[in-house]
Every structure is written in structure tokens, then in C-alpha cells.
Amino acid sequence: MAKSVDSRSEYAIGVFDSGVGGLTVLNALRQALPEEHLVYLGDTARVPYGTKSALSVRRYAEQAVCALSSRQIKAIVVACNTASAMALEHLQACYPDLLVLGVIEPGADAACRVSQQGHIGVIATESTTNNQAYQKAILRLRPDARIRAQACSLFVALAEEGWHEGDLVEQIVARCLQPLLVADSQFPLDTLVLGCTHFPALRGAIAAVTGDDIQLVDSAQTTAEAVKCELEAKALQNKNQIRGSLTFLVTDGPERFARVATNFFNERIDPGSVELIDIQHYASEC
């Protein structure tokens, strides 16, 4: 018997991040699911989330999902590693009728698959590192893994300012990664998880510092694959053979968002098409 198609199949996928870093996830979704309508919300008024308390991040995430859910959304992708670490389970409980996915589980899965020895490093913001969400997710999949984590919040500023390569950037990256790379010479890393959606913008500089012996993993592509699988399993995939629409929402600075987005997104964003919204009045369903 053919699987019935959910009436929500033509609804959009909502994607939210604290700012522009989640556009790396949007890129991957655009490539894996070109027919899907995508609504991206960047909470640019309160970026970064990585230095905020768990209570604040959870409240911000609730408001972002509430704002997105008012726009005919069938799924939510939490494209912020910090929000995924601190608020994902809470959001899934709040919105049982929505497919809500984060970036940490797909990233952890990819790291476990590519790591030969199970010696895995994680770089992320301070909040994500302290929460140990990646460490816990990796150990659930690979209990024998040896994991080291390092907060590299400075990379966010470098990525947003377009400082992606060059000697100075590599020197900064090397200084930040040094504690992680030399921490345990008996168990040298073979895999490094880029545990913040900003970090893929610095992939070249990071690779220059880590060398060929360390595999770099970012969760954008694996998150897109996970979303595709979930949509197919729930008969929610849009079957239209036309390219889906893109909608951009921000909580502050549409012009700056469009300008900085060129560092993360493969398509030009017209500043005039970026909608400024106030999400602080949205009340959570919890």
C-alpha cells in the first residue's frame, strides 16, 4: 500500500540560529532538499548564545520556535550548537506535533563514523563545551572513544568579520587549538568536530594547523541528511519539482545580516528581502 502524503508536506522547514552561522546548515539543506521551502531566523539582536546561561538560551530558543511555528512550519532545525545542547529536548517536548532536530547528534554520528581510533576532539563555544553535549552524544555511540574539548569562542568573531585565511588567522587558530592538540601525546586526535556553525568558515585555516592526520567534521551535511530521512519517514517531503522558496527573518540589523551572510551562504541575500521581527513577545507553548 502506498504511503499517504501528509497535508503539511508543502509547509516550510524552519531553521534558527543565534545569528548567521546557521547559514552553513541552510546551505546543506538547500542542496539536499532543493524543493523544500526554508524559513531562516537569525536572532541577531541577542547573538552570541555561546556565552549565555542555559536558562537564557532555552528562553531564546522557545521564542524563536514559537515565532517560526506561526508560519506554516512542518519541521524545525536548531542550527545553533549551543541551543541544540541546552534546549533541544525541551523544544521537542514543547512541540510534539513538530519535527524538531538539532545539529549535535548528526555531528557526533559523523565523528564516530570517520574516526579510526576513536580519539576525537571537539571545538565549540564555551556554553556548548561546558554542557558536554557532544561528549555525551559521542560516548552513547562509541563508549570507547577518548574525547577532548576546547572552547574557541574567538573563532565566531573571525568568521563573521570575514577573517578566514592568512598567516594571522592561522596563528590565532594555532594558539587556540594548542591545548587541545598537545594535551595527551599518547592518544593523538584523529578527528576534530567543528562544534559551532561558524567554524566551517575557518575550515581552511583549521586544516592548515591540524594537518592531514586529523579529519575535520562539521554537522551541516549530516544534519541535512538526517532531516531528509525524517521527512521521508513521516511522508512530509515536498514532492513538487520546483525549487523551494527562501525566507529570511532577523531580530536586528537586516543590512548587516545580508552583508555578513556572504561569508556563510552560497547565494546572495538582498538586504531588502530580510524581514525584521520582534520575537520577544512570542510566548512558549510550554
Automatic annotation (TrEMBL):
Stored SUPFAM superfamilies: Aspartate/glutamate racemase (SSF53681)
Keyword Cell wall biogenesis/degradation: yes
Catalyzed chemical reaction(s): L-glutamate = D-glutamate
PROSITE patterns in the cross-refs: ASP_GLU_RACEMASE_1 (PS00923), ASP_GLU_RACEMASE_2 (PS00924)
UniProt-annotated catalytic positions: C80, C196
Function, as annotated: Provides the (R)-glutamate required for cell wall biosynthesis.
UniProt cross-references to InterPro entries, sorted A to Z: Asp/Glu/hydantoin_racemase, Asp/Glu_race, Asp/Glu_racemase_AS_1, Asp/Glu_racemase_AS_2, Glu_race
EC number: 5.1.1.3
One Gene Ontology MF term: glutamate racemase activity
GO BP term, example: regulation of cell shape
Binding residues for substrate: D17, S18, Y49, G50, N81, T82, T197, H198
HAMAP family hit by this protein: Glu_racemase (MF_00258)
Pathway: Cell wall biogenesis; peptidoglycan biosynthesis
Cited Pfam families: Asp_Glu_race (PF01177)
Highest taxon of the lineage: Bacteria
Protein name in UniProt: Glutamate racemase
Group of enzyme by EC: isomerase
Keywords: Cell shape, Cell wall biogenesis/degradation, Isomerase, Peptidoglycan synthesis
Family per similarity comment: Belongs to the aspartate/glutamate racemases family.
